[in-house]
Design a protein that fits this description.
The longest helix is centred in the C-terminal third of the chain and has 20 residues, at 571-590. Helices cover 39% and strands 18% of the residues. The protein has 25 helices and 23 strands. It folds into four domains: 16-238, P-loop containing nucleotide triphosphate hydrolases (Rossmann fold), CATH 3.40.50.300; 245-420, P-loop containing nucleotide triphosphate hydrolases (Rossmann fold, 3-Layer(aba) Sandwich), CATH 3.40.50.300; 425-483; 608-695, Beta Barrel (OB fold (Dihydrolipoamide Acetyltransferase, E2P)). The relative contact order is 0.07. An eight-stranded mixed sheet has the order 5-4-6-3-7-8-2-9, sandwiched between helices. Strands 10-18-15-11-13-12 form a six-stranded parallel sheet, with helices on both faces. The protein is an alpha/beta fold. α14 (427-435) packs across α15, α17 packs antiparallel against α23 (602-613) and α24 crosses α25. The structure holds one DNA strand. Its EC number is 3.6.4.13.
DNA sequence: GAGCACTGC
């Protein structure tokens, strides 16, 4: 597969096998699937680095309860190991082989690749499951790809995951919350089901700590169980097939990595051979600034910088902007993509030969005391730096320019990032563990323990919502109902309250809208138009009711994309809202919730919202000139976000959906309320916090 | 009058 090509000529064909670890490949030309004969595919399979280890892997899986596979990008482990297992008989007798991925797109693309290699139709012998999409057939499917979140959900019906013979947890090094939870629970399952085999696949040598975690011994001290199965995890390394990447460091620390990144791109263009450039910065604002500087340079037709084609890449981009990034670089041009971390794991760009690494990314941090999540620009880990550099070695040997010193890399950069578990609000995780019968949350065997303060905060929130009782057990029925609904527990509580109040139709719409990023198109510099359009939908009660108006308008337009375009509404987001709402309706009906509309009674709707969000109440500061509010819970200074329809309206009392913290704490999605509803919705909470209700 | 790294059920 190691083909080279001259710029301007047709690019070599590539396939998804090149990329399973790195996420999803975007083809600039459609893959020539018709030319893949079976024999051809078989040869390709045998050329993958992992093929040499086929016998070893099968031997280890046979005799060890847990196998840890350290494999670099492009080793082929994700697509091949499930097939080896199937060929060795692990799917016989109605059993299933599972392979989990952190991302939905990866699940779909890996599954279709494996189905193609096996010459079967996707959804039959090889299937996949992601939320809202189950492409498996019971009794037929033998290899199943799924997100780790889906496997966690499956445990609620089948706690010991009895239908699986082998579970491969892929991308474990990413340490997402669901991967960490899954690993802790799988360890528990293995104690009850010693015959279950686990394969943990990771790109980094964190294998040692992973191995320690899974090291279990029988009480009698033997390292094997009665059937001779070794309890000691084994570790196997598989090399990748990336090309070498030359690493360059700066001599002196840089004071302005943005400027330095721009300078480096210009230098590469001047001195280096052909090949696209990928620059890692932290966020949209920074990226747009860097793009602008470079575009200005490139627009000077007389300078040789006119050969630069500069493009931004972040998740908020529209479809059409994303298409530009994955299109072929025009003849005589050098493509420069300036990206967030999205290009580190989720998306793979072809043709990158040079990487510029700022050494920073935006990371989420959670403060359990204030209950606020913050996005902070923070230094990346060595593991991330390595991953970023690897992006330069996909088509041929490349170069990575790190905008930090070698000394810093060696002596100061942390080896691994902080697991997400330790940087997040844990309300959803705690309720999920409770639903799985894990009573002692604080004593759970975590791969890395979250801060006790975060767990205590989560328990408090769930208790105040009436989801947990005094003994920290799920309440009946609402605790169990909330656990069944795959949404934030505060949103789920709102849905359950709507059942009693008779406005479930409206609240399900609101829940669906809150689960997408934003239903408005992102408009830089076009705020005026958006604001005017918003007035057409704006409700005096606030944003949630405004969302209902938009949803109604969308349905009345016949779900028209034209209508969305005219109204500054994100069509794809609205389609997702409709989808999600449908799924939620189906789910809550199963829980015995009756769909009913309150026919525009916005007071009832707001009361249902309060049932979940009473702890997010804020009061306008008296005599406040600048719209300052204080939260009722802890007198935190907050403001209504300018995107809200209640911005500058400043009702005396509001309830917000979430806080966004930048230079100020902004309340996102706000409704106006009557404070007496708070006591009505949560007497326990408000009596508890305010023994003297004189403030009302 | 301002801004959202990235996922997932």
């Amino acid at each position: 597969m190691s083909q080279f090509w001259k710029p301007g000529t047709e690019r070599p064909r590539s396939s998804l096998v090149d990329d399973e670890e790195g996420g999803v490949l975007f083809y600039s030309t459609p893959p020539p699937s018709s030319s893949y004969g079976y024999a051809n595919l078989e040869k390709q399979r045998q050329r993958l680095p992992v093929f040499k280890y086929r016998t070893a892997i099968l031997y280890l899986v046979e005799y060890h309860s847990t196998v840890i596979i350290v494999g670099e990008t492009g080793s082929g482990k994700t697509t091949q190991i499930p097939q080896y297992l199937k060929e060795a008989g692990w799917a016989e007798g109605g059993r299933l082989i599972a392979c989990t991925q952190p991302r939905r797109l990866a699940v779909q693309s890996v599954a279709s690749r494996v189905a193609e290699e096996m010459g079967v139709k996707i959804g039959e012998e090889v299937g996949y499951t992601i939320r809202f999409e189950d492409k498996t057939v019971q009794g037929v499917t033998k290899i199943k790809f799924l997100t780790d979140g889906v496997l966690l959900r499956e445990m609620m019906d089948d706690p010991l995951l009895t239908k699986y013979s082998v579970i491969m947890v892929d991308e474990a090094h990413e340490r997402s919350i669901s991967t960490d939870m899954l690993l802790g629970l799988l360890k528990k399952i293995q104690r009850r089901r010693p015959e279950l085999r686990l394969i943990i696949s990771s790109a980094t040598i964190e294998a040692e700590s992973m191995s320690n975690f899974f090291r279990t011994r029988k009480k009698n001290g033997h390292a094997t169980d009665d059937n001779g199965l070794k309890m000691e995890p084994s570790i196997l390394s598989v090399e990748g097939k990336g090309y070498p990447v030359e690493i360059h460091y700066v001599q002196e620390p840089v004071s302005d990595y943005l400027q330095s990144a721009v300078d480096t791109v210009l230098l590469i263009h001047e001195k280096e051979a052909v090949g696209d450039v990928l620059v890692f910065l932290t966020g949209q604002e920074e990226i747009d600034a860097a793009v602008q500087i470079l575009v200005e340079k490139a627009s000077d037709k007389t300078s040789h910088f006119s050969g630069l084609l500069v493009l931004p890449l972040y998740s908020g981009l529209s479809r059409s902007d994303q298409d530009l990034i994955f299109s072929q670089t025009p003849k005589g041009k050098r493509k420069v993509v300036i990206s967030t971390n999205i290009a580190e794991t989720s998306l793979t760009l072809e043709g990158v030969v040079f990487v510029v690494d700022s050494g920073f990314s935006k990371q989420r941090f959670y403060n359990p005391i204030s209950d606020i999540e913050n996005l902070v620009v923070a230094p990346i880990s060595k593991a991330s730096a390595k991953q970023r550099a690897g992006r330069a070695g996909r088509v041929r040997s490349g170069k990575c320019f790190r905008l930090y010193t070698e000394d810093y890399f060696v002596k100061e950069m942390p080896a691994e990032g902080i697991p997400e578990m330790q940087r997040s609000n844990l309300v959803s995780s705690v309720i999920q563990l409770k639903a799985l019968g894990i009573d002692n949350i604080l004593g759970f065997d975590w791969l890395a323990s979250p801060p006790p303060e975060s767990m205590i905060r989560a328990l408090e929130v769930l208790y105040s919502l009436g989801i947990l009782d005094e003994d920290a057990k799920l309440t009946t029925p609402s605790g169990f109902q909330v656990a069944e609904i795959p949404l934030d527990p505060m949103v789920s509580k709102m849905i359950i309250a709507a059942d009693t109040l008779g406005c479930s139709e409206e609240i399900l719409t609101i829940a669906a809208v809150l689960s997408v990023q934003s239903i408005w198109v992102s408009v830089r510099g076009k705020h005026k138009g958006l604001d005017e359009v918003k007035l057409r939908f704006a409700a005096a009660e606030g944003d949630h009711v405004t969302h209902l108006n938009v949803y109604k308008g969308f349905l009345q337009s016949g779900k028209s994309s034209q209508w969305c375009y005219k109204n500054y509404i994100n069509y794809h987001a609205m389609k997702k809202v409709v989808d999600t709402r449908e799924q939620l309706c189906r789910l809550v009906r199963r829980l015995g919730i009756v769909l009913k509309s309150c026919q525009g009674d916005t007071q009832t709707i707001r009361k249902a919202i309060l049932a979940g969000f009473f702890s997010h109440a804020s009061q306008l500061e008296e005599y406040s000139q600048n719209g300052m509010y204080k939260t009722v819970r802890n007198s935190q200074e907050v403001y209504i976000h300018p995107s809200s329809v209640l911005f500058r309206v400043n009702p005396k009392w509001v309830v917000y959906h979430s806080l966004v913290s930048t230079d100020k704490h902004y309340m996102h999605n706000v409704i106006a309320i009557d404070p007496s509803w708070l006591i009505e919705a949560a007497p326990h909470f408000y009596q508890l916090k305010r023994p003297n209700p004189a403030i009302f």
